[in-house]
Amino acid sequence: MTKIKILDMMYSKEGKQGVDMKTKGVTNLGKKLRKIRIDNDEISSDMACKLEISVSYLSAIENGKRNIPKDLAEKLFKIYQLSDNDKEKILQAISIYSGEMRIRLDSLNEKQQKLSLLYAREISKLSDRQIEKITGYLNGKE
């Protein structure tokens, strides 16, 4: 097996490291990380040191070429004073980047759990109109 094939396996959906990030360009998450650095008058090495990762790994995350450490959001939120809105945007960016979304069901009541599971099963079957209607309702516009 070639070195390239092994690396492909390490960073593919089948590999233990998670989603294949090699083909992604500059990511929304990367933009958010860079904004945090700018807002805190930092350079890449400052943020990388605080997050306990190498500068090259941070750069690779920003450019969609490496997987996100599981504790990245937790560390960001602990280190940087971010608004709840910024935290939510970062969590969304991480979900999009990684290709998955996680919902903590243990913090929801039974009806909320059932709705979450129904959503997960049925979302791909909804039309654009249905999605717009549900989104409007959830955003308080209907």
Any overview of this molecule?
It is a single chain. The termini are far apart. This protein folds into two domains: 3-98, 434 Repressor (Amino-terminal Domain); 105-138. The chain has helices at 3-10, 28-39, 44-51, 55-62, 72-79, 84-98, 110-122, 128-138. The chain is elongated. The chain is 58% helix and 0% strand. Mean pLDDT is 82; it is low at 1-24. It has 142 residues and is mostly helical.
Write the SSE topology.
Layout: H1 3-10, H2 28-39, H3 44-51, H4 55-62, H5 72-79, H6 84-98, H7 110-122, H8 128-138
Helix pairs in contact: 3-4
Protein name: Helix-turn-helix domain-containing protein
GO molecular function, one term: DNA binding
Pfam family, one: HTH_19
Gist?
The protein has 142 residues and is an all-alpha fold. 58% of the residues lie in helices and 0% in strands.
- Strand count, sense and closure of the main sheet? none
Q: Overall pLDDT, averaged? A: 82
- SSE order, one letter for each helix or strand: HHHHHHHH
Number of domains: 2
| CATH-scheme architecture of the largest domain | Orthogonal Bundle
CATH topology call of the largest domain: 434 Repressor (Amino-terminal Domain)
Labels describing this entry:
elongated; 434 Repressor (Amino-terminal Domain); mainly alpha; single chain; about 140 residues; 2 domains
